[in-house]
Design brief:
Length: 220
């Protein structure tokens, strides 16, 4: 399973011109704000039409992109997580879907918040519920835009380990991040700058500062 891409998209004064490949495993896409990370993800998810493109999806069925998500303040957390089986996916929602969603919520330690109103949750709790929703889509290609925002302490590495385990089941997972301390969690790194890919390869070969924050059981 892989996704191979060669895309061009002009947005005002900015132009994304990127060629590369996403493979099974967990990929961190890094780069400063405005480098084109979100634009690339939306193109790969089919949400944004590029000016020129060639994208080859091999073995990929369901594709899911999750970025900023508007949630009504009176919604409960379980409803948001169930979006992974409805809004993000064509699968019908039933009892088995709720069981699956709750399983992912347990992995992210938010199942006890299932009946809580969205407005009562902290930023980190909301982020983990949204990630649970994304995982519940059980997509072959999962694109998460800044999933570590609002996460503190050891939660960044814990979430990345959950995503790594999900990718290890034979799926493609890609995340954008500004946090260099989690790059060791990834199998691959793609670096973007000013709309161009400046580096791509195994995470262990990436020369930016890395630490051991993603070692199992390690706290930040």
């Amino acid at each position: 399973m892989y996704v191979r891409f060669d895309v061009v998209k002009k947005l005002g004064d900015f132009t994304l011109e990127a060629s590369g490949e996403l493979r099974k495993g967990l990929t961190c896409v890094v780069g400063p704000n405005g480098s084109g990370k979100t634009t690339l993800f939306k193109i790969l998810a089919g949400l944004l039409k590029p000016d020129r493109w060639a994208v080859e999806y091999v073995g990929v069925g369901v594709r899911t992109y999750v970025g900023e998500l508007y949630v009504p303040p009176d919604a409960i957390a379980l409803e948001v997580a169930l979006a992974g089986r409805s809004r993000f996916s064509s699968l019908p929602v039933g009892k088995r879907d709720e069981e699956a969603v709750r399983r992912y919520m347990r992995l992210l330690e938010v199942e006890d918040l299932a009946k809580r109103r969205w407005r009562t949750l902290s930023g980190g709790q909301r982020q983990r519920v949204v990630i649970a929703a994304a995982l519940a889509s059980e997509a072959d290609l999962l694109l998460l835009d800044e999933p570590l925002a609002n996460l503190h302490g050891d939660w960044r590495s814990r979430v990345m380990n959950v995503l790594s385990d999900y990718a290890a089941t034979g799926r493609i997972v890609a995340v954008t991040t500004h946090h260099g301390d989690v790059l060791r969690c990834c199998n691959f790194v793609i670096a973007l700058r000013e709309g161009r890919i400046t580096w791509s390869g195994a995470a262990g070969d990436y020369k930016e500062s890395l630490d051991s924050s993603c070692d199992r059981g390690t706290k930040n």
